[in-house]
């Protein structure tokens, strides 16, 4: 069976990627990263719950806490405020410097070791808050670099099936494909119940609203 590494945060985007990869006939190697983010424990719980639901047995959770030591973002630095206005001049402080580049480099090593020919990542250009490492151009470029830096027989394709979708589109496609939205976690700040006011919660809630659907997770309000 053909294999794919799926980078899975526990959020709705990467969960839909895993759901689609399964429907496309891939055996999945689920890859999760702990980088001392504010909601690290809750995200890992979501990751494991989702893998259980989707019957993904091959899973790998890696400690990449050096990312927090680099700092420069509100997801790992609790002295910084997580944005709640949706307004930002340029890239918001929730951008973790080059995170997707780091994740994809590690995913490439996992893929090469396991003879996987695809890597799925849930990047979204429209609703990515302006993160530079969510652009399709960047993903295509790093794919070329990965294939230059691996064995000739490796030939990895990075798949980004959501890159041109809106959050409302992602909700709709998730519902159409029975992706387990109720197990996903998007909140940047809270691990008990989603705060509902951080930029990630706001994007998610707005996506459900535009899709004329109700978010199945609980919020504080």
From TrEMBL:
The prosthetic group or cofactor this protein requires is: Zn(2+)
Query: Pfam families per the record?
Result: QueC
Q: Please give the Gene Ontology molecular function terms for this protein.
A: ligase activity
Per its record, the protein catalyses: 7-carboxy-7-carbaguanine + NH4(+) + 2 ATP = 7-cyano-7-carbaguanine + 2 AMP + 2 diphosphate + 2 H(+)
Q: Which UniProt keywords apply?
A: ATP-binding, Ligase, Metal-binding, Nucleotide-binding, Queuosine biosynthesis, Zinc
Query: What superkingdom does the record give?
Result: Bacteria
The EC number(s) attached to this protein equal 6.3.4.20
Q: Where does Zn(2+) bind?
A: 187, 195, 198, 201
Reported function: Catalyzes the ATP-dependent conversion of 7-carboxy-7-deazaguanine (CDG) to 7-cyano-7-deazaguanine (preQ(0)).
Q: Which family, according to the similarity comment?
A: Belongs to the QueC family.
What protein am I looking at? 7-cyano-7-deazaguanine synthase
Query: Can you name the source organism?
Result: Campylobacter majalis
UniProt lineage: Bacteria, Pseudomonadati, Campylobacterota, Epsilonproteobacteria, Campylobacterales
């Amino acid at each position: 069976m053909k294999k794919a590494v799926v980078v899975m945060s526990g959020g709705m985007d990467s969960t839909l990627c895993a759901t689609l990869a399964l429907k496309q006939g891939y055996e999945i190697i689920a890859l999760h990263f702990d980088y001392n983010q504010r909601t690290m424990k809750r995200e890992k719980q979501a990751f494991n719950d989702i893998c259980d639901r989707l019957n993904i047995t091959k899973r790998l959770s890696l400690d990449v806490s050096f990312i927090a030591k680099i700092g420069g973002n509100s997801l790992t630095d609790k002295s910084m405020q997580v944005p709640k206005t949706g307004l930002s001049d340029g890239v918001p402080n929730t951008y973790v410097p080059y995170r997707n580049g780091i994740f994809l480099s590690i995913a490439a090593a996992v893929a090469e070791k396991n003879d996987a020919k695809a890597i799925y990542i849930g990047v979204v250009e429209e609703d990515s808050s302006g993160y530079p490492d969510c652009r399709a151009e960047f993903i295509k470029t790093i794919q070329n670099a990965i294939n230059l830096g691996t064995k000739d027989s490796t030939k990895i394709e990075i798949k980004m099936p959501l890159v041109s979708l809106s959050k409302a589109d992602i909700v709709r496609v998730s519902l159409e494909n029975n992706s387990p939205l109720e197990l996903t976690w998007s909140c940047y700040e809270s691990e008990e119940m989603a705060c509902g006011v951080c930029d990630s919660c706001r994007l998610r809630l707005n996506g459900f609203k535009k899709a004329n659907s109700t978010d199945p997770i609980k919020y504080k309000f």
